[in-house]
Write a structure and sequence with these properties.
- The protein is of the alpha+beta class and 599 residues long.
- The protein is built from 11 helices and 30 strands.
- The protein has 3 domains: 23-333, no CATH class; 338-443, no CATH class; 479-596, Sandwich (Jelly Rolls), CATH 2.60.120.
- A hairpin with a 5-residue loop joins β6 (63-65) and β7 (71-74).
């Protein structure tokens, strides 16, 4: 059933959060906490240091104050362990602020002793004093981020993110939240921007329940930002994106049981009594398709901030391509909701063929019950070449080397279809992590991934699973999935062996030609380097094919005999497909034949 055509159902989303409060002056701030009916308890007020650098240890329920009263606090269950935090003034970075942003005051950096990401339900709270006389209706915290920390963005590219929040009139502070800190720090500056609102922190004054602007049970809160032309991005577009995301959520989270996504959400009030935030819903952004990271991108997701951005030309409307982009980026937010995946990401161990391949496979599969479907959005997605390792990405001479992790959807879709599984099976990997060894532990035997071999021979020759006709002509070699054929021109006089190296989770496709007619032929492949055995033989999977033969899928894997009377001949083309199912070692293999001339 296609869930994008189902009737939208209203969800009641209650996110249990942490107790927190605020009590601050223009240069100092601290958090207050309460539980149940207990009275509000204020933490000691800490004076901010007058110099350019401040910091200290941040623990649950505590604060660290830096220069000029800029501060950071944690809820009562934000951190697994205390962290060191540094707050410092810094110079303006070379990347200019967005044209509509007006800076208020100095630039700052907030850094941690190591990269720390926390759950979005219990984020860090940032507090920035507002200069006297500044307008307070459209305050935001502009943060410069790098594409190195943004999925689908170009590494090294930098862009400004607007963190919206609330204005606390009692303490003259702008308050917002963030779900991660980096060791290298991120430049931050308080700005005004017409695309963001900073309503008064009503609950800070009343110590009561704030009234969310959009209603307590709205699931998504979509905001257009950075569109220069008036009304270029309309409330209708925002509403359409919200509705689409609700349907995606219903399918992936409700129907399939994936974790709640790691998405930024905001509250109209940051208050300390009662003990929860009244969520406005998950916050998602629509940006122009030429702004910031959106240049050459359809959308992106940041595990750091929990931001999901759709890069859109509003004149197009929410066409199917934009819907697939929303699914892709939402699935990223789902992937990073699994702590082992997030931990792998922070440790630099998460692998793109898993992260991007799964998200691409989800684009169409999310709409189907118990069936994986290959995405072909805008026809930019090519078949994954088997002689390019799933793990290591592209060879340098491919025209678009950064896209191979997306093309790895072929493996995920094939595995689901080959085993009668829908999108939900990907959870089995995510709960373990986002490393190849995790995939091998879950889908293989802990050492080798035989499922990779099943995929490779299907991709090259057999095509029993053809991705709705994308793979054509079973038993004829699929040239578009091979970057470069190995050539073995077998000559009886001096060339009976062919040696080659096959990398981890990679496949060699060897084209065989014979210089003579042979009445009998017996071919096999073996590991030939002594210090690689027996691992080379355990990892080896191979199969011989005659191009265009009927029933090639029924030919057994391994050695092949062309019996007397059938033989091999120069006028025919043969292939041997050789896969290395090991994920952490390359091996050297030899192809050889025993041959007999006709009588």
């Amino acid at each position: 059933m296609n869930h994008f055509s189902m009737k939208l159902q209203r969800l009641f989303l209650t996110l249990a959060l942490c107790v927190a409060g605020v009590a601050v002056s223009a240069s100092v701030f601290a958090f207050a906490q309460s539980g149940g009916e207990d009275p509000i308890v204020y933490l000691p007020v800490i004076a901010g240091p007058p110099d350019n650098v401040g910091g200290g240890t941040l623990d649950n329920g505590g604060t660290v104050i830096g220069p000029d009263g800029v501060g950071i606090g944690a809820f009562t269950d934000t951190l697994d362990a205390p962290i060191m935090v540094t707050i410092s003034r810094t110079i303006a970075p070379p990347t200019a602020l967005p044209s509509q942003a007006q800076m208020l005051g100095e630039f700052y950096e907030i850094s941690a002793g190591e990269d720390v990401y926390v759950v979005t339900e219990s984020p860090f709270i940032l507090a920035f004093p507002v200069p006297p006389g500044a307008g307070t209706d459209h305050l935001a915290l502009a943060m410069l981020t790098s594409g190195d920390h943004v999925n689908d963005a170009e590494p090294g590219v930098q862009a400004w993110t607007m963190l919206e929040g609330v204005f606390d009139p009692d303490q003259n502070l702008f308050l917002t939240t963030i779900a991660g800190l980096h060791n290298e720090g991120n430049p931050l500056v308080l700005v005004t921007h017409p695309d963001v609102d900073s309503p008064p922190n009503a609950a800070a004054a009343s110590a009561g329940v704030g009234v969310p602007r959009r209603g307590q049970f709205d699931l998504f809160n979509v905001k257009c930002q950075h569109f220069i032309a008036a009304n270029a991005c309309t409330e209708t577009i925002e509403s359409d994106v919200e509705t689409t995301l609700e349907l995606i959520y219903l399918r992936i989270q409700q129907d399939l049981g994936f974790f709640e996504p790691r998405l930024r959400y905001l509250d109209e009030t940051l208050h300390y009594n009662p003990n929860s935030l009244s969520s406005l819903g998950y916050t998602v952004y629509v940006h122009p398709d030429d702004y910031g990271y959106c240049a050459n991108l359809g959308g992106y997701y940041s595990p750091h901030t929990g931001e999901l951005v759709l890069c859109m030309d509003p004149a197009t409307g929410l066409d199917p391509n934009y819907i697939f982009i929303l699914i892709h980026e939402y699935f990223h937010a789902t992937e990073f909701a699994y702590y082992p995946v997030l931990d792998d990401y922070l440790n630099g161990a998460a692998e793109d063929w898993i992260i991007e391949g799964m998200a691409t496979a989800a684009e169409k599969s999310a709409a189907y019950d118990d069936q994986m479907v290959r995405s072909d959005v805008d026809s930019w997605l090519k078949l994954h070449k088997v002689d390019v390792s799933l793990m290591f990405g592209s060879a340098t001479n491919l025209p678009e080397p950064d896209l191979d992790p997306y093309f790895a959807q072929d493996f995920w879709v094939f595995y689901g279809l080959n085993n009668g599984l829908g999108l939900g099976y990907l959870q089995d990997v995510l709960v373990v992590g986002a490393k190849t060894e995790d995939v091998v532990n879950v889908l293989g035997d802990g050492d080798y991934l035989d499922a990779y071999w099943d995929w490779a021979k299907n991709q090259v020759m057999e095509k029993a699973i053809n991705f709705d006709g994308v793979l054509q002509s079973p038993c004829f070699v699929e040239e578009q999935v091979v970057e470069e054929f190995e050539i073995f021109e077998l000559q009886w006089t001096d060339n009976l062996y062919h040696q080659l190296t096959v990398g981890p989770l990679s496949t060699a496709v060897v084209k065989l030609t014979f210089s003579d007619v042979h009445d009998f032929a017996f071919g096999w492949v073996y590991g030939h380097v002594q210090d690689q055995l027996p691992d080379a033989e355990m990892a080896l999977k191979y199969k011989f094919y005659e191009d265009g033969e009927n029933g090639c899928e029924a030919v057994p894997d391994g050695p092949r005999t062309w019996p007397e009377g059938e033989g091999v001949a120069p006028g025919k083309t043969y292939y041997v497909v050789i896969s290395n199912t090991d994920y952490d070692a390359a091996y050297d293999y030899t192809i050889t034949f025993e041959l007999a001339f006709p009588d």
